[in-house]
Amino acid sequence: QVQLVESGGGLVQAGGSLRLSCAVSGRTFNNVMGWFRQAPGKEREFVAGIRSSGGGTQYADDVKGRFTISRDNAKNTVALQMNSLKPEDTAVYYCALDVDNTWMVLTYPSGYDYWGQGTQVTVSS
User: How far is it, in rounded angstroms, from Cα 61 to Cα 10?
Assistant: First the structure.
């Protein structure tokens, strides 16, 4: 059974940093991974994605230069380093796994097959 478990969320002041982590179990870790977020009353949106090799990444425009996605294939984990956080970054953050892709990073939720339970990130002004 495939499981994705996020950790690292919390409350931080604007301008601060948080590091989210996602641990994957139950399958080989050779797929595209993504981070999404969902704020209250809004649709789930793409934040960042990374290829299976870790050599290619993609970011949403509003997080470029502030967030960094990385992965450790030896540990089956993917991380999201979030710097210069803003109140508008407040959301539940989810990691996701795309079983069909090792190379193409999809930016829509329906492209991913497995999801974590989410971790809350709250940025105060």
Answer: 23
Residue type, 28: T
d(CA 81, CA 72): 14
For residue 22, the tally of other CB atoms under 10 A from its CB is 25
**pLDDT mean for each 10 residues of the chain (125 residues):** 95 98 89 96 97 91 98 95 98 96 93 97 97
Beta strands in 1-125 (DSSP E): 3-7, 10-13, 18-25, 32-38, 45-50, 57-59, 67-72, 77-82, 91-98, 114-115, 119-124
Q: Do β-strands 119-124 and 32-38 pair in parallel, antiparallel, or remain unpaired?
A: unpaired
Distances (CA, A) of 16 to 37, 78, 79, 89, 122: 18, 21, 17, 11, 11
Q: Environment class of residue 83 by beta-carbon count within 10 Å: exposed (0-12), middle (13-18) or buried (19+)?
A: middle
